[in-house]
Structures are given as structure tokens and as C-alpha cells.
Amino acid sequence: MKKLFALLFLTVFVYACSKNDSQKQENQATANAEIAANASQTIDKDTVFSFDINTLSPGCDNNSQIVCAINATVKCTINPHFEECANLKSAMPSFVFMEDESLQRPTSQSYKITKIKPLNDGSIEVYTQSTCNGNWFGLCNGNIIYVLKMQDNSWIVKDLYAIES
Fold first, then answer.
1. Minimum mean pLDDT among 5-19, 39-53, 92-106: which range?
2. In terms of CB atoms within 10 Å, which of 5, 117, 123, 138 comes out highest?
3. Distances (CA, A) of 84 to 30, 55, 58, 69, 109
4. What whole-number distance in Å separates Cα of residue 128 and Cα of residue 78?
């Protein structure tokens, strides 16, 4: 009988914990969706963000964490040895920091945000129209999507991919 009560208690405990975790994830996803909706309204879709290897500067003077996260990724794409990139190396996709002469890493890149889409897991996709003077896996010219997740109360780019027009 004691084993049955212990098993019943353990089952209820596990159920309560898992329900709590899924509710936390739902709450986080809802909060991130609201952030994405607000960002869509506050980010000027006509603004073009441009970067060049000779004029990269540390920090971000934009008031949007989303824009700052993408800017940091672009800076590290252009120059993986840029001073800000050392702190971001463990958070960003590892291919951003790959080094090989055949990568055709750009030395300048521009983008403008066209759409922000919240995802069910609490992350967001930021659709951009980008141009660059390199190839870099095909991830700097055309329609590039940055996938951002909340980490330590700030947005960080976790993945990026290209789609056809």
C-alpha cells in the first residue's frame, strides 16, 4: 500500500511539474509574440542597416534589441575577430565564425527588415532583404531570415537561412 501511495504521489508531482513547465513555455511564447508585434510597429521597414569592414564600430545605437542582435550577427559575419564577437561566439550559430578562404566572406553588407513573425516556441523570425559583396554560404544576398531566441533577457540570433524570392 505504501508503494502505491508513493507511486501515486510521484505521478501527481511529475504531472504538476510538467504542466507548470508547459505553461511557462506558453507564457514565454505569448510574451515573445507581443514583443515581436511591438517591434514590428516600432521598426521602420524602410531603414537600411549597412556595415563595412573598415567602419565597424562596437555597440548598438538602435533602441531595438532585435535590430541589435541582427547587427551583431552581421558584424561577426563580416569580421569574426571583431571585438564584440568573442562574447557572442557561444550563443550564435558556429558557422558564423568558420574560417576558410573559399567562404567568400563579405566585407560589406546591408539589410532592411521586411517582416517579423513570432513562432510557437517563443522565438521569432525576422525576414530581411540583404545585399553583400560576397557569397558566404548564400546567406548575405537576397531574402535572409534570422531566427532569434530570448537568452538572458535579450534577443540573440540562433540561426539564419535564405529563401528564394
1. 5-19
2. 123
3. 30, 14, 6, 11, 17
4. 17
